[in-house]
């Protein structure tokens, strides 16, 4: 499985607890990481990295191959989280609650909550992480 295959597999899921539980083992085995939002203050990593970071109202989350910096250290990799960015729209013009920006090569997927766009998540390969 590659990042594109995984992104396609999890695209259009409904937000909820354990949303990626059924693909976690395949993601781990393939060295892939799934990034998505949770609530109004978290970025979650699932798969080859299983961790979370705080990003209330958006912000930058730093991490390395072992996980997220929980003490504010600026590690080698960064994902910037955007909360309700007015320029992040779905195909119907609706604001997507969580979106991300990173220099790490990745694929995207959508998560919905009650049929509304909730998160444009990303999938990346651990080999592309410093």
How does this model look, in words?
This protein has 130 residues and is mainly beta. The protein is 12% helix and 43% strand. It has 2 helices and 10 strands. The protein has a 6-stranded mixed sheet. A 4-stranded antiparallel sheet has the order 6-5-7-8, with no helix packed on it. The longest helix is centred in the first third of the chain and has 8 residues, at 3-10. It is globular, with a radius of gyration of 14 Å. The two termini are 21 Å apart.
Main β-sheet description: 6 strands, mixed
Structural class: mainly beta
Distance between the termini: 21 Å
Count helical runs. 2
Brief summary of the model shown:
The protein has two helices and ten strands; from the N terminus they run H-E-H-E-E-E-E-E-E-E-E-E. It is mainly beta and 130 residues long.
Attribute tags:
single chain, 130 residues, mainly beta, six-stranded mixed sheet, 2 helices, 12% helix
How does the SSE layout of this entry go?
Layout: H1 3-10, E1 13-14, H2 24-30, E2 32-38, E3 42-47, E4 51-54, E5 59-64, E6 67-68, E7 77-83, E8 98-101, E9 106-113, E10 116-125
Parallel strand pairs: 1-9
Antiparallel strand pairs: 2-3, 2-10, 3-4, 5-6, 5-7, 7-8, 9-10
């Amino acid at each position: 499985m590659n990042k594109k295959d995984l992104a396609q597999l999890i695209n259009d899921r409904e937000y909820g607890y354990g949303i990626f539980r059924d693909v976690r083992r395949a993601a781990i085995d393939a060295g892939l990481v799934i990034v998505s939002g949770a609530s109004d203050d978290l970025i979650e990593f699932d798969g080859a990295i299983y961790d979370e970071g705080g990003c209330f109202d958006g912000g930058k989350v730093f991490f390395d191959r072992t996980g997220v910096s929980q003490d504010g250290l600026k590690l080698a990799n960064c994902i910037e989280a955007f909360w309700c960015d007015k320029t992040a729209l779905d195909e119907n013009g609706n604001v997507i609650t969580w979106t991300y920006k990173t220099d790490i090569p990745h694929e995207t997927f959508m998560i919905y909550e009650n049929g509304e766009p909730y998160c444009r998540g990303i999938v990346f390969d651990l080999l592309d992480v410093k």
